[in-house]
Structures are given as structure tokens and as C-alpha cells.
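Sequence, please.
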């Protein structure tokens, strides 16, 4: 299932609750979105950090899906709403952080989430996603 849909479902769970998200997206999508929410809110265990280097575990795979989905969905949101200045996809407000440097999309981007939203880091510095 496309990561952008899962991320939209995660935002809807946050805003309106799981029941509303199930009505719109279905139980399978909402279950996957709950896994992503849990991954973002919890810290990795030592074993998960070690397995990330050696294998692509489920948590690591979903993290890659979030990165790809955010980048793809952000581009789609920016392209589809050229008149609307409120670019937000899956709890990611692209209109904030105007003073931050733009991420180099040829390099990896670290995504860190907390209760306030998602922030992007590259080479240890906070960056913003290109529009």
C-alpha cells in the first residue's frame, strides 16, 4: 500500500480518531498507520539499532517508507495546491522552517518525530524539505 495513504491515515487518526480513519481508509491501512505512529513515538531498542545496519527489519522498512512517502506526498501536495499556502501532509507542515536550509535530496535524510510533529535532519543539522 502506498506510504502517502498510510501517512494521511496517521494524520487522520491524530486529528479525528481511529474510527473516522477506518471509515475513510479501511482497517488494514489504519493498522499500518498505527505501527508507523508507534515507531515515531518510541525509541529504538539496542537490538533494533544493530539490526538496522545488518538487515532491513520491519521497523527499518517502515521508516524508509515514511521517508519516501513524505518526499513523494510533499511534492504532490505542493504541486496540487499551488494557490493554497498551507502545505501539510501527514502532520508535516511544509510552510514552517522557512529559515532552515533546504535538504539535499541526493543524500539521506533523518526523520525524527515527537508529539509536536516531524523534523528533518541531514548531516546533524536541521533542514527543510524542498517544495
Amino acid at each position: 500500500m502506498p506510504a502517502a495513504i498510510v501517512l494521511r491515515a496517521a494524520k487522520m487518526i491524530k486529528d479525528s480518531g481511529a474510527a473516522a480513519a477506518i471509515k475513510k481508509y479501511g482497517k488494514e491501512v489504519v493498522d499500518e498507520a498505527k505501527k508507523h505512529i508507534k515507531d515515531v513515538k518510541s525509541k529504538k531498542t539496542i537490538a533494533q539499532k544493530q539490526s538496522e545496519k545488518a538487515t532491513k527489519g520491519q521497523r527499518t522498512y517502515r521508516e524508509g517508507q515514511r521517508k519516501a512517502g513524505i518526499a513523494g506526498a510533499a511534492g504532490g501536495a505542493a504541486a496540487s495546491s499551488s494557490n493554497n499556502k498551507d502545505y501539510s501532509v501527514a502532520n508535516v507542515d511544509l510552510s514552517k522552517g522557512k529559515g532552515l536550509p533546504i535538504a539535499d535530496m541526493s543524500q539521506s535524510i533523518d526523520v525524527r518525530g515527537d508529539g509536536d510533529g516531524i523534523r528533518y535532519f541531514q548531516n546533524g543539522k536541521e533542514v527543510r524539505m524542498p517544495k
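Residues 99 and 128 are 9 Å apart (CA to CA).
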